[in-house]
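Design job #97: recover the sequence.
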């Protein structure tokens, strides 16, 4: 643990620090103050994980992501699985089924060829499972000491079905908040192998493609309001992003948030809050109350949503703020994380 680096240092740093990549407030400030002005605005879909664009009358979702996880292989997956599933899931959060991916490898001089092959094979298997094709790519090599073995960038496109409009601005008071399963699993799995920690049982990453689960939900009704996969910054970051963008308040029942005992125990030992720990195979959905029970039933009928549960609702009060009701009957504010509790988790 002596090699740990603080992921959330002071925010007035004149240089990039680890917290800028954590998916929290520092990441948002970097995007809003540097990238968005430089690129001419937030784009047609706002600042979301994927953009919805129209080409030739068709609505497409387009997304790109980079993966720098350490270690490259971990219980339940690898950087190759993350590279495919992460982009597939970003597209799915727009309601699109991913069709094609690009793949860019940045390799460090000296990395073993069999490691690169193992990563590539994992990507190929994950793509076949997700029903997508990797159709173009690029490879670069950097000098020894200027990388970390293997970095990967993937971009993807998919078609958004007619009538689907998923964005935070559609969230209204009365909407029900549903999470598709246990939270915090991926981040704890990464930490356990990175630091050689043991928690009595092996914790495996939840890395998985969510396109099929989203299709099952949209089959009930296309009138879902917004979907998010709570990766960096965990469930807390996703809820805060949606509350801020929609101008509504969110109330979460803390006891309803599904946290597996091994994850809860690991977080207790490490001093982490499971709501801020990354996931790679879960989603959070904001659903009109009239459709909530049917959508929940459809989720539970799918293997990746078998443990789905309602965890809260959208309210008029405290707009832009997320509040958790505790087991003791009190409340606490669930803030947007400053940086990231666990750096380099995706």
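Job complete. Output follows.
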């Amino acid at each position: 643990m002596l090699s740990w680096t603080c992921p959330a240092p002071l925010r007035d740093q004149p240089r990039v620090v680890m917290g800028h990549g954590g998916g929290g407030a520092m990441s948002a400030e970097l995007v809003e103050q540097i990238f968005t002005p430089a690129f001419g605005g937030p784009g047609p879909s706002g600042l979301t994980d994927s953009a919805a664009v129209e080409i030739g009358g068709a609505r497409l979702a387009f997304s790109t992501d980079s993966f720098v996880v350490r270690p490259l292989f971990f219980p339940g997956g690898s950087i190759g699985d993350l590279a495919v599933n992460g982009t597939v899931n970003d597209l799915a959060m727009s309601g699109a089924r991913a069709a094609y991916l690009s793949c860019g490898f940045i390799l460090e001089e000296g990395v073993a060829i069999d490691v690169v092959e193992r990563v590539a094979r994992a990507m190929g298997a994950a793509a076949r499972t997700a029903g997508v094709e990797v159709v173009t790519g690029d490879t670069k090599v950097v000098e020894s000491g200027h990388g970390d073995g293997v970095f990967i960038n993937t971009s993807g496109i998919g078609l958004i079905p007619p009538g689907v409009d998923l964005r935070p601005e559609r969230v209204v008071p009365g909407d029900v908040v549903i999470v598709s399963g246990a939270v915090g699993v991926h981040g704890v799995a990464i930490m356990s192998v990175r630091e050689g920690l043991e928690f009595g049982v092996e914790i495996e990453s939840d890395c998985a493609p969510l396109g099929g689960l989203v299709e099952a939900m949209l089959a009930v009704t296309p009138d879902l309001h917004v979907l998010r996969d709570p990766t960096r910054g965990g469930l807390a970051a996703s809820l805060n992003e949606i509350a801020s963008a929609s101008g509504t308040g969110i109330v979460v029942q803390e006891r309803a948030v599904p946290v597996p005992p091994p994850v809860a125990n690991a977080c207790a030992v490490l001093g982490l809050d499971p709501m801020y720990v990354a996931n790679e195979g879960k989603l959070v959905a904001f659903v009109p109350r009239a459709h909530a029970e049917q959508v929940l039933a459809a989720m539970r009928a799918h293997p990746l949503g078998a443990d789905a549960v309602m965890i809260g609702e959208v309210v008029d009060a405290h707009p832009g703020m997320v509040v958790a009701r505790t087991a003791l009957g009190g409340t606490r504010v669930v803030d947007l994380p400053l940086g990231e509790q666990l750096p380099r988790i995706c």
